[in-house]
From TrEMBL:
Probably binds two magnesium or manganese ions per subunit. The active site is at Y114, D157 (proton donor/acceptor), H258 (proton acceptor). Its cofactor is Mg(2+); Mn(2+). Mg(2+) binds at N7, E34, D157, N159, D257, H258. The record marks D228 as: Important for catalytic activity. Pfam families: Exo_endo_phos. Gene3D superfamilies: Endonuclease/exonuclease/phosphatase (3.60.10.10). This is Exodeoxyribonuclease III. It comes from Mycobacterium kyorinense. Belongs to the DNA repair enzymes AP/ExoA family.
Length: 270
C-alpha cells in the first residue's frame, strides 16, 4: 500500500493537481489537511470517478481534513477522544475544530491530522496547540495499550520542526513557534509513545523540507521547514519499505506551500 499525506492548502484550488498526482504516483491512501471547505463543498465526485472513497471533516473555510482511499474506508471517526476545543472569540462557545479524522484503509488505521499552528509563543493558541498535542499523545498511547499490534499511522501537518536540521535557519526562527522547546518535547512525547517517524530514515540530512513559504522566494532559495510527518506504530513501522518527500510538487503553477510525503507499506504477514 502506498500511503501519503499532503497539506493541500485548499482542495478546491488544488483539485486538478491533487488528482493528477494521485494517478501519477499511484497513491492508495491520501490524507489531506487544510482543505478549507465545509463537508458539502468538498469535491467528492472527482475522487470517486478515479476509484477513491472519501471521508472529510470541515466546517467552514478554515482547517479541514480528509482521507481518500482506494483500498477501503471503514470505521470513520471525526476527532479523537479528549481533543481540546477552541474559540477565537469570547462570545462563541469553544468547539472541536476540523483537525483530526480517522479511518481504516486496507487494514491500517490512518489519522489525518492538522496540528494547530500556535501563532506566537504568548498567544492562547500556543497553549491550545500544546494541549492538543498532549491529548493526542495520551489517546494514541491508549490505542497501543489496548492493542500493541495495531497498525496505526498518525500523518499530516504537525506544525513542528522537531530538530534544528528541520529548518533552514535556526537563528531566523529564534523566539518563534514551530521550533520552541515545549513544542519539540510534545512531538518527542508522541515518538516516545512508540510512534516512529518512518520517513526520516529514507530522507536523511539537513536541507530536507516539506514546507516553504510563498513569500521572499523561499522555495528557490531552499528556505524551508520539515513539518509534515508520517508517524507509525511499531507493527506498521516494521512494514515500511520506502519513503519520499515529493519536492517537485511544490513547483509549477499554483502549488500548495507543502509537498506531499509518502511511504510504501508491504502487506502484513499472515
Amino acid at each position: 500500500m502506498r500511503l501519503a499525506t499532503w497539506n493541500v492548502n485548499s482542495i478546491r484550488s488544488r483539485l486538478d493537481r491533487v488528482l493528477d498526482w494521485l494517478q501519477r504516483a499511484e497513491v492508495d491512501v491520501l490524507a489531506m489537511q487544510e482543505t478549507k471547505c465545509a463537508d458539502e463543498q468538498f469535491p467528492t465526485m472527482p475522487f470517486f470517478e478515479l476509484g477513491y472513497e472519501v471521508a472529510h471533516c470541515g466546517f467552514n473555510q478554515w482547517n479541514g481534513v480528509a482521507i481518500a482511499s482506494r483500498v477501503g474506508l471503514d470505521d470513520i471517526e471525526v476527532g479523537f477522544d479528549g481533543q481540546p476545543t477552541w474559540s477565537s472569540k469570547p462570545e462563541l462557545e469553544a468547539a472541536a475544530e476540523a483537525r483530526a479524522l480517522g479511518a481504516t484503509c486496507g487494514g491500517v488505521r490512518v489519522w489525518s491530522l492538522y496540528v494547530p499552528n500556535g501563532r506566537a509563543l504568548g498567544d492562547p493558541h500556543y497553549r491550545y496547540k500544546l494541549d492538543w498535542l498532549a491529548a493526542l499523545r495520551d489517546t494514541a498511547e491508549g490505542w497501543l495499550r489496548t492493542d500493541p499490534s495495531a497498525p496505526i499511522a498518525l500523518v499530516g501537518d504537525w506544525n513542528i520542526a522537531p530538530t534544528d536540521e528541520d529548518v533552514w535557519s535556526v537563528e531566523y526562527y529564534q523566539g518563534c513557534t514551530h521550533v520552541s522547546e515545549p513544542e519539540r518535547k510534545a512531538f518527542d512525547a508522541i515518538v516516545d509513545a512508540q510512534f516512529t517517524d518512518v520517513v526520516r530514515p529514507f530522507t536523511p540530512g539537513p536541507g530536507v523540507y516539506t514546507y516553504w513559504d510563498y513569500t521572499q522566494l523561499a522555495f528557490p532559495k531552499r528556505r524551508g521547514m520539515r513539518i509534515d510527518f508520517i508517524l507509525a506504530s511499531p507493527a506498521l513501522a516494521d512494514r515500511v519499505t520506502d519513503a519520499q518527500i515529493v519536492r517537485d510538487e511544490r513547483k509549477g503553477k499554483a502549488p500548495s506551500d507543502h509537498a506531499p510525503v509518502l511511504v510504501d507499506v508491504r502487506d502484513a504477514c499472515i
